[in-house]
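note to self: dont lose this again. the chain is below, predicted strucutre after it. 537 aa total, dont forget to put it in the shared folder this time
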Amino acid sequence: MASQLCPWDTLPFEIWSRIFCTLEDPLNFSLTCRRFYRIAEDPMSMAMWLIHTYGRPLVFYKAFQFHRQLLSRKVAVQLRHLGAKLQRFLLQYIVRHHGKLVLADDAEKGTRRNDLSVGAYAFFVAEAYRQYGEEAAFGEDDARIMVSALFEKNDTVEAQKLVVDYCFVPLRAFTSQCEEIVYRTSRLDVTLLDHMLANGLDPADVNDGVLRRAISEPEVSAGSLKAYLDRGFFLTDSLINAAIRKCDRKTLDALRQHIPATKLMDIVSKIFIDNLAPDFNFSITLVTFLQEHFKISEAVAECAILEPYARQSRQAVKRLDGPQPNGDSVAYSTTRTTSLFPTPLIAPLRMTRCYRQQKPAIAWRWVLRTYGPSHRFCEFCFSDALLRMTHSDGGPPPAYEFLAAGVRFRPYHARYLSAIAAVSSGFAKLAAHDLLQRLRSHMFDDITDCKQVDENSMSEDPSSDSLRKAWIDALRAEVDLLRSLPSTTPPPETENKFERDSPVWAVRKPSDPAFPAGWFLREVEGILAELVTLDIV
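---
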């Protein structure tokens, strides 16, 4: 009985050639059987595979770069027959850099196996004369000529001739200024971009560099962006970010014509948040521009201003709401810092993300102006400003500006003043004493105000009692903490002078912690004693 043929064996050679041109790796296909090997060796099949893989405009360049052994004379002829372009700059490069090697004998070639065959080289030379004639200019370099025409001469005619007549397209293998060439060409004549695209330019290869130059222009319009976007360029998130950071109204209007509002708002929110990040320098110009043209939600502002644990702690802080004398509501913290953020360190945690910036006071002042002294953002900024009393940006300490604007001390701020007194010296040491007196003033004023409100409302649960207890708990915690610090005794030669010249609140005891925390401890103990004996009923 006659053997039955496999259905695949009945397919004609032309069908197998079509299948072959869609493969990713023709080598494995050619090793399968003799029939497949003959298909792979067929010049037309190989030419079809190269065009299907790389496209007609740059197929000769891609084949020369990555499949030089496959680029025989017969394959090159079939590529031209199928409409593949042959750019003058590639012919110049082949003759200039490979002519001598191709025509050399085997001894001169050495062990190099990845060079053009003599037949392929002869084809390129003949095709150059056939297509360009005497203008083949083998000794020239079209990439260098294009750079000269755009950068030095500003010659539109020469640039147009290179692109239209000689099929020039900037490639990184021939020039390092691809983005600049494309951008300057578009500035001379935007229609030349169409010819470059037809010559094989891939917008994705130069997209960011070209559009970054375009959006950095003083005048950016929706039409100028559209000229690029219609030709395959696209606006990435980084480009939109850079355009917004220009703080230019016309550029923003152009972006709004091409970017969905939701995507634009997402990028704006990220820029706003990054502007207050630790590794950025806060820009008041940028944040003002964003606020003028976008509605920044308080949720985004919270992510930008506060550390994550500060945002979470807002839910954990127990607050006592009581009326002020003017009838407004005022919030007092009844939980000290140590219970909110368990840590063995005396220094409280930083609450704002911009704390580690070089000049965070600029951002804190902006928060104060934008949200007002009664906003919780200002309370956190004020807390961090207390920790940076010794880091001035050339102006007065921002903590005093917050106090002058009306920001009030809360019970947990006693921990911040303890940190100043325990680890600082010089100006901060004096500031700790001054700030503690201001804290004392705020404390007794707030308790007195709450007492008056209690008397007017005849409340059975006086808010002044709760507020007083909160302050007592906070101050006692700081006294216990300061007493637990290692004690030091002043040198014998300075002990008498120290006692004689020190004010009452700075009189030293042998059990006191190191200077200046000992002074601060005396003051806190005095305020605590005064508060415990206070009669508010």
